[in-house]
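Weekly puzzle thread! Below is a chain. First person to post its structure in token form gets bragging rights.
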Amino acid sequence: MNTIAAMDWSVRVIDLVMIVAVFSGPFLAVLVTERSRLKKEKRNRQIHVFRTLMSTRASTLSPTHVEALNLIDIEFDSKSRPERQIVESWKLYHAHLGDSSYPPDSWPHRRAELLVDLLHEMASFLGYQFDKAHIKNSSYYPKGYGEVEVEQHALRKSVLKVFEGKGAIHVISHMAPDQFDRLTTAGQRNQDGEPDARSNAVSAQPDREEQRGLPTPPPRGSA
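Winning reply:
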């Protein structure tokens, strides 16, 4: 009897295990698949951030470069030990970008070093075999692009000064000095009700032609 009872309990346990396996198997499979998908998507987003920063590391003022920097806090988890170093490197780089008290002469050099450190940490985490010298020296950026950025920046600053009243637009006149004086005098007289400046400007034409030694055209209606 004891043997039969023990067999009954063993059968029941096996049945229960089989039932749990039948119902939980698909759920566990979906769970594992979903976690694998999310992990792959996260890695793809991290690679996208890294690729964007690498491709724009020579033009750090480009909007795509700035956008990729701001995505680091979202795509890399500071609670994860492998990703923590990346977040810490980004914090150092971000702090330096806003440090106005750093010596201006050495600020660009330090900025470049911190950016290389950040990209090297990201490359190591994502499995790219890039050393710091390669990251620093292998970027290509045409000289003309840099000149365009500098010119656009200078142009924006000049226009802004004009709108703020801190600058002026220089105008070069090619008008003869005597004609300018006559137009100015005619404009002042016009305010007092005298003939318009246009008639004075037209009447000034024969005088200039006489000064050049050209013959004066005969009056209209003459034979």
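Puzzle host: Confirmed. Bonus trivia for everyone else. The chain has a mean pLDDT of 78.
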